[in-house]
Amino acid sequence: MARVALIGSNGQLGTDIARLWTSSAIGRRDELIALTHADVDVVDAAWVRSVLTGVQPNLVINTSAFHRVDDCETQVREAMRVNAVGVKNVAEVCRDLGAVMMHFSTDYIFDGEKRSPYTEDDPPSPCSAYAISKLAGEHFLRYILPRDHILVRSSGLYGVAGASGKGGNFVETMLRFHREGAPIRVVSDQIQAPTYTLDLAAALLELANKGGRGAFHISNAGQCSWYDFATELFAMLGLRPDLTPVTSAEFGSPAQRPLYSVLDNGRLQELGIAQPRPWREALADYLRLSGQLAA
């Protein structure tokens, strides 16, 4: 039985990968070794080497990331340590062990000027410190493991486990704002495809089982603005908050985000793997699984 090491197993995406593991085709064949941040820190090269050498995996799934986008503008060194050097540390051990590495990047490496879904071959043009650090990680991955990497870009992730580094996710942040009774301002000019991590995890496991290599875009189908997403969320729950659309300029976040970053899932479908379901269906399922919407 082969072994698969999952770094960041208690994070938002890692939790859903672990949740689906035993029922997946690859899970019925390979053993999952779940590693939390307490088990290994990707910025510590010696620690990474010691842990992964002990595990002897055939595949390493690295979900670790510093993804507080606005904080990256002032914590550039930390963003680069985790999102670039951390990838380098893991990739070098994978190379030496003969293991494949699956790693995750972001739609934010694109600048949004294209205004049609981005393919895996479109040139990146990052416009924030976060995006630059994630793109640097991509370059390390490709350089160190040119034939043995699986690079997955996704967008707008949310999952039942929440994003531990962010203190929740967009859905839970919106619901918290509603409970607090404060006016809610949400940007209406950033268009992307919010992606449910349970759906992403299912596609990832199928991709790994089929032996995919190279870059893949995986996101829920369709597109919307963050304001559209919030509006749909509150409508599903029958809530009527004080919700106002604003432009990115009016919102004034420290980090620039692309105004359009929908991802084309074509390479995934070329392998016979369907794009995850439409984002509205995924959101409803998230709300049911988290106990906020009746089954």
Task: Describe, in plain words, how this protein is organized in 3D.
- With 295 residues, the protein is an alpha/beta fold.
- The protein has a domain at 3-161 and 194-221 and 261-277: NAD(P)-binding Rossmann-like Domain (Rossmann fold, 3-Layer(aba) Sandwich).
- The chain has ten helices and twelve strands.
- The chain has helices at residues 12-21, 45-55, 76-97, 129-144, 170-180, 197-209, 226-236, 248-251, 266-270, 279-289, and strands spanning 3-7, 31-35, 59-62, 100-106, 149-154, 157-158, 184-187, 191-192, 195-196, 214-217, 224-225, 243-246.
- The strands form four sheets. Strands 2-1-3-4-5-10 form a six-stranded parallel beta sheet, with helices on both faces.
- Helix 1 links the parallel strand 1 (3-7) and strand 2.
- Helix 1 crosses helix 6 and helix 2 (45-55) packs parallel to helix 3.
- The longest helix has 22 residues, at 76-97.
- The N and C termini lie far apart (38 Å).
- The mean pLDDT is 96.
Task: From the structure above, extract its key features.
6-stranded parallel β-sheet, Rossmann fold, 295 residues, alpha/beta, 10 helices, two-stranded parallel ribbon, 12 strands
